[in-house]
Amino acid sequence: MAEQSENLRHTPLYDLNVQLGGRMVPFAGYAMPVQFPDGIIKEHNHARDAAGLFDVSHMGQAILEGSNGHDPAVALETLLANDIQALAPGRTRYSQLLNEQGGIMDDLMVTRRADGPGLFLVVNAACKDADLAHIEKRLDGKASLTRIEDRALLALQGPAAAAVLARFAPDCGALVFLEQRAMEVAGVPCLVGRLGYTGEDGYEISVPEAEAEGLARRLLGEPEVKPIGLGARDSLRLEAGYCLYGHDIDTTTTPVEADLAWSISKRRRQEGGFPGDKIILQQFADGPQRKRIGLQPEGRSPIREGTPLADSSGQEVGIVTSGGFSPSCQGPVAMGYLPPALATPGTEVSAIVRGKAVPCRVVTLPFVPSRTVSTKK
Amino acid sequence: MSSIKFSEDHEWVVVEGDIGKVGITNYAQEQLGDVVHVELPEVGRSLSKGDEAAVIDSVKAASEVYAPVDGEITEINESLADDFSKVNSDPQGDGWFFKIKMSDASQLDGLMDQAAYDDFIAGL
């Protein structure tokens, strides 16, 4: 292993994860459970059928407030192409920090706080130091960033998540998809957002560190809830067609190439004013050189990240960026990049696996339809 | 007279005469997690010790299985195709991979016996 276990950071749920039989592995500098004794497939299916509890405390939480009379939403919009000004209090948006080439430095969730001034940010664990340094440096004088180091982050995901959480937080059912409010969960003051990265209905709960294990135990005490590791988190997000930073998106891919153009509003497309705007607006006008696509490989063998993709003449034209076995589809699924001419669903390409051509079909993402809740009940 | 030997790559070989039956150890299947696919060698293929003989796909990753000895593949476990999870549930029984006709039985001396393998994994 590249990372020595003694140098790994622990989340507030580390002891609980170990006690639950989690197989701990190095991930983004943290010791995280890749799976529990049930194994990835059972955990995956449990999150699709009932509810799974994920420790996502390794992710970075921060609050961005305006300085010297500046609006933090206006300031943050200079670092990304998403519409932050349009966010109503308590609403969350999936966004991407951009570099000067329009490449993605990280993807993040941005919420306009309903319980205080400014914006609440959640960034990827592996990128958090770089992201927060970048934001601080670039917004110096316009906004100030406060890292939240004393809160854990739990994700409760699955069709039973709302019913389970309602036993501890009766108001959670009033939240719609991508809405966040401060509320007590089992008497603990938390920040609860109706979102996640599995394609299922569910919540992310930011909870004070000292209360995190107790709350996790309460949730795990419910019959519908089981702990889920990073392995199933990855297969769930892949089925949902969501990008994994550092794999499906990175500093060399733009939001347009990554098929994330939906997250960029008309206003921002018209106004520009974000890093790499010339390149990204050009891609909006002319189309990108390559596009992220879903792939259905023939046969049973999963196609992994880094596998080259070839066209019908055997010419290498693309690459797989995420791939694995889909428990819900009972077979292999993958995502990757292809030229636009080959990015149409139904197109046949080949994945070159250990020198052999495996036929694959381009398919529409997601592999499993999203079951997030977008309307008030 | 049969005996079981283990490689440092966590393959086991049960030897009967000049035929070695090969699979992966219980330790290996635990490390891999849920096995979803196994690509087995073709019958008749000649392999040298250390050659890639099979590929195991778990949910997480693909892993190679190496030939623990030189020889020719005489049989593969066709029944795995019906249920790859046999590799998890019975790795040293129904979850076997292939049989190989050994060309140099002295190579077995370089493999570990049960006690040595148990010590080996205890130190990992």
TrEMBL record, chain A:
Keywords: Aminotransferase, Methyltransferase, Transferase. Its EC number is 2.1.2.10. This is aminomethyltransferase. It comes from the Bacteria. Belongs to the GcvT family. One of its GO terms (cellular component) is glycine cleavage complex. Substrate binds at E204. GO terms for molecular function: aminomethyltransferase activity; methyltransferase activity; transaminase activity. Residues 290-368 form the Aminomethyltransferase C-terminal domain. It comes from Limibacillus halophilus. SUPFAM superfamilies: Aminomethyltransferase beta-barrel domain (SSF101790), Folate-binding domain (SSF103025). GO terms for biological process: glycine catabolic process; methylation. Pfam families: GCV_T, GCV_T_C. Residues 13-266 form the GCVT N-terminal domain. PANTHER family: AMINOMETHYLTRANSFERASE (PTHR43757), AMINOMETHYLTRANSFERASE, MITOCHONDRIAL (PTHR43757:SF2). It catalyses: N(6)-[(R)-S(8)-aminomethyldihydrolipoyl]-L-lysyl-[protein] + (6S)-5,6,7,8-tetrahydrofolate = N(6)-[(R)-dihydrolipoyl]-L-lysyl-[protein] + (6R)-5,10-methylene-5,6,7,8-tetrahydrofolate + NH4(+).
UniProtKB/TrEMBL annotation, chain B:
Residues 19-101 form the Lipoyl-binding domain. Transmembrane segments: none annotated. Keywords: Lipoyl. One of its GO terms (cellular component) is glycine cleavage complex. It comes from the Bacteria. Pfam families: GCV_H. SUPFAM superfamilies: Single hybrid motif. The modification N6-lipoyllysine is found at K60. PANTHER family: GLYCINE CLEAVAGE SYSTEM H PROTEIN (PTHR11715), GLYCINE CLEAVAGE SYSTEM H PROTEIN-RELATED (PTHR11715:SF3). Belongs to the GcvH family. The glycine cleavage system catalyzes the degradation of glycine. The H protein shuttles the methylamine group of glycine from the P protein to the T protein. This is Glycine cleavage system H protein. The gene is gcvH.
